Amino acid sequence: MRLLKLVPEDTNIKFLRWRVPFYVVSVLLMIASWGLVYTQGLNYGVDFAGGQEVRLTFEDLEEAPIASLREQISGLGYGEPVIQRFGEENQVSIRVRLPEEVEEQAGAATAIGDQVIASIESQYENVRRDGNDTVSGKVAGEFREKAVYALLAAMLAIALYIWIRFEWQFGVGALFALAHDVSLTLGFFALFQLEFSLQIIAAILAIIGYSLNDTIVVYDRIRENLKKYRKMPLPELLDLSVNETLARTVMTSLTLLVALLPLLFYGPDSLFGLVAAITLGLFIGTYSSVYMAAPILIWLGVDSNSFVPEETVADRQEKLARGEM
Amino acid sequence: MLEFPRWRKIWLWGVTLIAMFAALPSVFAVANLQWPEALPDQTVNLGLDLAGGSHLLLEAEPDQVAEQRLENMEEAVRAALRGAEPRIRFGDMSAQNGRLSFILESSGDVDRAREEILPLMNGTGIVTEWTLEVVDETRFVLTQTEEGAENAVTQAMDSATEVVRKRIDALGTREPTIIRQGDTRIVVQVPGLQDPDQLKELLGQTAKLEFKLVDQNALPTEVAAGIAPAGSQIFPYAAGTPFEGQSLAVRRLSGIKGDNLTNAQQSFDPQTNEAVVSITFDQQGGARFANLTRENVNKPFAIILDGEVLSAPNINEPILGGSAQISGSFTTETANQLAISLRSGALPVDLTVVEERTVGPDLGADSIKRGLIAMMIGSVAVIALMVASYGRFGVYATIALVINVLMLLGIMAGLNTTLTLPGIAGFVLTVGAAVDANVLINERIREERKRGRRVITAIENGYKEASRAIYDANITNFIAGVLLFLFGSGPVRGFAVVLIIGLATSVFTALTLTRMWVAGWVRKTRPSDLNI
């Protein structure tokens, strides 16, 4: 049986030839992403903004009365709700943001939520509640804070471990690649104003995990080659390492992709945001391992001596004794 | 690298089989099969976001506890000084900002007053709960210490948790989880509960019941303007009562509390057929209630629930039997709810719902079904790709992957952890890590063969060289997982738990188990060439 080989043997693609333009574009994209996050803002879901999101099925109707619902809920005086179809034609999700004046009040979100539901249920019959999330301003603030702390702590610990296992340049490189992935994902969410919830944080974590995996595989090969080819110029060595791991990169990415796509297209609606973000991150993460994590080593000045054990005093004396010095 | 002594094989298979066996009840449950009752049946808990149910986060305001505590101290001090022989006279008592202060009328009473008050200040005795100062010879100032206030909050939360548990049990819902969280919060999770309105109302009711004499001397105009006469307090009428919108002045220190109850039941008033709550006092409460009614015949007294007047009936005759009826324009449902609340005792502190998440069971079940089908399609595709690419080694990788998933489920079931939606993201990531480990190994073996290494050396090198990257990658992710667990909130933790367990099983199955199988195959057939 002839086995499938996705990548031809002995590829020699000059990945790093275009490292400067790629880097410039990537850094610009990162800056643009943060610019978007600051100007457009992230479309926080109830987890981070506070308020209510309720998912309803109008069992008697063919189609959910979105327009009149919008009017009815706006009339309650808590601002314009976000109403979207969710799943079937007669299913909607309704999101009401917590007004700023009551952000500090512990019970405000629940009170508003109850009012919204009561108002709808008095107007329509046979409304099934499929889900309801109500988060107070304080709890939402804690979620924001904790998500940021958790992400930062995890990223720093990762960088530290890589520094210990490799060299400081690798730690910085990995951190930079992760910052790139997180930035671009955030920028994507800001650009398209997709709902940013705690689930998306889980997705970003998965993206970081995957990208990190990729980066370490490439770094491991670089470390190995640095020991093996001590005279090879660094750009060439990096290209070699990326090419040698290319078959693995393609294979792993493809395998994950075929696992993710059914979830994306057929999986439950509640998982869609999560899976979409992970799928997006798969591409960003693979790219960043090659174009973000590797070239930075050139500029940070990694050289082959980094991984050669230093001579100890005993070694020196032994050499001296043998007359080699 | 390829040496596997018998004891090692037995050990590896043992671990694998035990973990896989632990997953079987969960697999049976998903497939709707009957799991034999005689065997241990711990399954993976599904989070409410997957299984459906209600999650409520309740929060108490710690200042309220401190206030209540100050009020209790005021009452205790008053009683102690009045009860002293001879009575100790005092004035200008005020309770504000965590302090209670008053002036003795005679400076000769200072030592006696101190003796009366000191025993009241000892709480649990572990920490100093109050400090006592005497200023300007006769002014006593009692201040709550921070430790004392904290202690009080902890105690209040402990008993609040108990009360919450009793109330939810009274609803008869299945397997609720009630956990204290942090200093001032309680998490309530009720699987399968679709409409938490009743639960919210029940938990939102503090159920602090008081009986106080109506201040008949208060001027109606002043009461309406919210000005209380000296020694009185103003309470509004509850919504739904005939006097809604009006207020009532009551004597501040005249009444008794409704916390000495042995029973409370919803019933109907025989004359009006209105829904009422019948309460039965315990002996002490009954005696106090009898006293109050005996001394105040033909005067009205107010029944106050959570700071709102329910009704203010006239005391026609002394009520000596230790039971009474509360009317307050109830419906059967609200009367029943109040009865439950009273039976379970008053909450020592108001609880506010600060987070509510409810998932209907239909959505949960549908999510799981579609998720499982999608995962199956994905798995078949992954298996096809692996086998097509690596032949025999792909088969090993696939078996390792299946075992990985089962072991992960088994360990999660064994440790009683919960699988949530974000946990599925963790699941995807660890399966990805397991696939990647095998890809790394197999690509490396390919590479080594290409360089002309002999079969055994190629396999040995493949495992050795690849495992370095595999370990580094997985340990880094593992560290990240631990930190996420430590710093993250609920959903992030759900992700981290799966990640931490999953990375361990991934490395074990993808690296150790496949190596054992490959070693066995090589040893048995001694291949001269590899199709990889």
What does this structure look like?
The complex is a heterodimer of chains A (325) and B (532). Chain A has two domains: 15-41 and 140-299, Multidrug efflux transporter AcrB transmembrane domain (Multidrug efflux transporter AcrB transmembrane fold), CATH 1.20.1640.10; 51-135, 2-Layer Sandwich (Alpha-Beta Plaits), CATH 3.30.70.3400. Helices cover 63% and strands 11% of the residues of chain A. Chain A has twelve helices and six strands. Chain A has helices at 19-39, 46-49, 66-74, 108-123, 137-165, 168-191, 198-228, 234-244, 246-266, 269-293, 295-299, 313-321, and strands spanning 43-44, 51-58, 82-86, 88-97, 127-135, 195-196. A four-stranded antiparallel sheet of chain A has the order 3-4-2-5. Chain A has a two-stranded parallel sheet with strand order 1-6. Chain A is elongated. Chain A starts with 18 loop residues before the first helix and ends with a helix. Chain B has 532 residues and is α+β, with helices and mostly antiparallel strands. Chain B has 14 helices and 19 strands. A four-stranded antiparallel sheet of chain B has the order 7-8-2-18. Chain B has a four-stranded antiparallel sheet with strand order 3-4-6-5. In chain B, helix 3 (62-83) packs across helix 5 and helix 11 (392-414) crosses helix 14. Chain B is elongated and about 110 Å long. Chain B starts with 5 loop residues before the first helix and ends in a 7-residue tail after the last helix. The relative contact order of chain B is 0.12. The interface between A and B is large, with 81 and 81 residues.
